[in-house]
Amino acid sequence: MAEKPSVLIVGGLGYIGRFLALHIHKNNLASEVRIVDKVLPQLAWLAPEFEEACAGPKFMQADASREQSLQRIFDRSNGKQWDYVFNCGGETRYSQEEEVYKLRSLELSLAVGREAAKRGVKCFIELSTGMVYKPDSAPSKEQDKLKPWSKIAVFKLQAEEELAKIPGLNLAIVRLSHVYGPYASQWVATALCMARVYQALGSEMKWLWTKNLCTNTVHIHDVTRALWQVAEWYAAGKAKWDAAKMGPTPTFNVVDKGRTTQGIMADLIGDVFGIKTGFQGTIISNFAKIHLHDVVEDVNDELLGPWAGLLEDAGITKPGPLTPFMEAELLKDTDLSMDGSRLEELLGFKYEKPEINKELLQEVIESYKRMKWWP
């Protein structure tokens, strides 16, 4: 039996990092795992099932964007180097100052990438986003035109490009669609919280733009499986990778097969909450194109008070990470539309949650209830 790989997860308490750690733990995939995060497990809203996989001796508190932390992060007691390094770190909040993304995302990626190259790590996986593609309703493949449309994506693309220049770095890039699943606190969470308020107010939930706007999704369960499979494939010699045709850096879209749109989400949410859902007419949508921040502010003003009231009525005094607060950046009239066929064809990857559905959304809400986050 070959020894199992050793694994370092940077940003290991983030949403994807914690589920990756859990996947490795549950399936006993690694000989050693180290979870690095600047946040302590006690402050990370960890559900009980992550305790063993993410905390205790496996956890190290450190800021990987700081040069002076790198030795402590990468050194192992047996003097060997890590086999796989997953960079799940970086700023995931929207609407921050550019400097924040530069420091916490770009510089973090480069610091960790340079150290991984120096130490001859077998595979370094950089998490990126499908928001780096030029928005188009036709699904983007990995080599299609790039034109990042969120600040996160601008700096993620810079990280991709700069990492690719580091000599000796065994780099693979994974670009994700909207990730959802139990305990999710972004994107799907916002929509669910908004729907809960509209349900309480007895009013219709209306989306901007059209029902055809692409908001492609992927379940966290499949994200962690894909990340692990890419690392294994890379370390085993990158079978069938044609650098002349596909480019020097193995890059994979991870997106389910459901081709999720706003219309699909509106129907599912209407069904889950028993509320009317629909779309604003062209007049309001055109107005929003010019005055997006004002429109978003109005909606947030309308929803945040009632949400606080719901929490209070439910006796929820310690608020969790959920909020109906909407980010203008995420509300742009831009398609997140990706083609994930390369991962399936090249690695034989199979999605176990091929599309978002009512049951999977209800599972997300159930997870919130277990954590006492949900009113």
From TrEMBL:
It comes from the Eukaryota. Pfam families: Epimerase. InterPro entries: Epimerase_deHydtase, Lipid_A_modif_metabolic_enz, NAD(P)-bd_dom_sf. Residues 7-239 form the NAD-dependent epimerase/dehydratase domain. SUPFAM superfamilies: NAD(P)-binding Rossmann-fold domains. Signal peptide: none annotated. This is NAD-dependent epimerase/dehydratase domain-containing protein. It comes from Neurospora intermedia. The lineage of its organism: Eukaryota, Fungi, Dikarya, Ascomycota, Pezizomycotina.
